[in-house]
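User: structure tokens for Helix-turn-helix domain-containing protein, please.
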Amino acid sequence: MPCSMHRNAMRCALTRALFVSHSAFMEEIARIRKDLGISQTAFAELLGVSQAKVSRWEAGVSTPSKAEMIAARTLRRPKRPPRRKSTPAHPNQGAA
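Assistant: Done. Predicted tokens:
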């Protein structure tokens, strides 16, 4: 009996972990596409998949393969470094 309980606990833990990663992929795919400001069709064309596939990913019906996820992540726009305040190159510069 303890073995079956252990197996069930392991199965439950695995199911929870898969659900979390599945929903994380779903949100990440949608976020990448929306950050780019493009339609599902345009996003699908960039990845070489169908629009229906992108729709299924975003709806959580299916998950992208590892290669598809890597390709999607490469499309992310790089974050810009924070802008620095412009300061004079020389302390006396600008003083008259």
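User: Anything notable?

Assistant: The radius of gyration is 23 Å.
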